[in-house]
Predict the 3D structure of the following.
Amino acid sequence: MVDYFAGKVAFVAGGGGMGTAIAEALVAAGAQVAVADLDADHLEAPNTANRFGLTGDLSDETFVEQAVARTLDCFGGLDYLVNTTGVLWFDRDRSVVDMDMAVWDQVLRINLKSFALTARHAVPAMITRGGGAMVHFSSIDALAGDARPQDAYGAAKAAVIRLSKSLAIQFAGAGIRSNVILPGPALTPMQARWDADQAAADAVADAVPLGRLGSAQDMADACLFLLSDKASYITGTELVVDGGLTAGH
């Protein structure tokens, strides 16, 4: 896919494992990319002519507006939005019966409101450009309940699917596509718990029909397909990238 994205500009919200892999893949394919994240440690890649990082809170509309504006100033337009921002707090995000509702509010602010804000400011820029594409990261956790719940996380991820479908319908006439990726278990910083518990990681991998955990690169490959013209007739849908895990349920 070398130079497949030449002349294109992407805004990647969230610079963690998946966001970094996606940004790197887009730059390698010829795109210019801005990456935004609250944690400066997620933006360690040096700024270049084709990529720069922005440190700030993606659930703060002022920051999002400024970040998109800077992307337009630096690269001259915007073609793609990728939303990967998210937190998964096993120690605090539990059943709504038990959890601190301040945690509920914070998780939805990070995992859902940030997606709404980036779309709010990216879509007008894409319309000016004549079209574009968005990929929003949800999770297979959005598809079912769980006896060991992270209710705020799951609710936010389910809402991302609904938001994406609405955006797809609203802006199809402007040439803008919106799709969702639902990752299964993957070795990314969000699942750092597996770094210290190989037995747990192996048990999860054994439950996956393809016999392994996913990777950030697996998600990047799926994302670039959905952004690309190869997916020009795909909008308002979800791509499950889980090694077959949900196929048996």
